[in-house]
Amino acid sequence: MTAVVPYPALLATVTDVFVGRGVPPDRAATAAEALCHGDLTGVTSHGLVNLTRLYLPLLESGRADPAADMVVTADLGASVHADARRALGLWSAAQAVDLAAARAARHGIGMVSLRGATHIGCAGFHAARAVPHGMVGLVTSNCGGQRIAPPPGGSRPVLGTNPLALACPAGDRHPFVLDMSTTVVPTGRVRAAAREGRDIPPGWLAAADGTPVTDPTAFDRGEARLLWLGGSPETGAHKGFGLGLLVEVLSALVSGAALGPASEGDADDDIGVLALAVAPDLLRPGFAADADRLFGALLDCPPVDGGEPVSYPGRPEAERARWRRAHGVPLPDELYEELRGLAPDLRAAG
Prior knowledge:
By secondary structure, the chain is α+β, with helices and mostly antiparallel strands. Helices cover 39% and strands 16% of the residues. Helix 2 crosses helix 4 (89-107) and helix 2 (25-41) crosses helix 11.
C-alpha cells in the first residue's frame, strides 16, 4: 500500500527536519529538494528512504557538519578548488554546480573540484542545475574511502559505485539528464529489493567465483559483490570499471579527497566531487537550436513495431515529476509512517 503526499508538504517537512538538526534554512531547503528529487522522479533508491538510514545518522554522528560552509582554497577564475568541510552533500554539491555555472557565465566553462564532501544523493539533480542557465552540467562523485566492487579479476573491492551525471538543455523539451552508477546498479536498488523481500535479476550481484546471485540480502552479508557495467569480463566489465576509475580520477585524485583503493578505512567520508558547467552559447552561436534538433530527431526515431515511443534519459523522469508535483508523491506506507514519526503533522492527500 502507498500514501500519496502533496509535494509541497513533503518538501516543507524534510526542510524542517534538516533545520531541526542545525542546517541553516536556505541550505536545508536545497537539501530537501535534492532528497525529494528521488521520489519525485521515481529514483526511490536515492530518495526519502535514505533520510533516516543515511543523512540523519551522518548529522547525528558528526560525520556531517550541519553548519559547515564550503571554503575556496584555490581560485583560478574558470577553475576552483574547494573544501566542503563535511557539509551536507545534498547541499554542497548543488553549491558547487551553482559556482561552476557562475564561472562559466564569465569564462565559457567553470569547474569546481570539491573535497571533504558527504553523500550527494542524485547526481543528476545537481548536474541539472546548470540547464536553466542554458548550460551543460557534469557531476562526478566518488564514494570517499568506501570500497564496494573489485576490479575485473580482482579478489577484493577497491572502488565505490562512483556515479556520474550529465545534463543538457533540449530546446522546449525536458532536458537530457543521464544519471548513472558505474556499477550495474547502485547499492540502494539492491537494498530496496532486500527490504521488499524480492529476488533481483541475474547480473546485478555475483559470488566470489562469479556465480550469479539473486538473493539481495547476500550483499550486506558479504556473500556477493556488485558487478560493473558490462557484467562479466567477456561482456565488457572493463568498460564499467574504467568509467569507475574515470570518476575516481576526476572526483578524488584531482581534488585530493579520499581515494577508495588507497584508503585505510572503508567509510564514505571525504567524498570527492567534480562539478563542471559549459556555456556553449558563449563559445559559438546556434547551440540551443542544435540541441533542439538533436533531441527532436531522437524522439522522431520510429519505435520497434508495437513498442513504446523512443525517449532519452531524463525525459520519463521529468514527466513523472510533473505529474507528481500536481497530484502528489506516492510513498510506501512504511516510509510514510517513518516520516510521520519525524513530523506528526504530515498528512497524505485525500
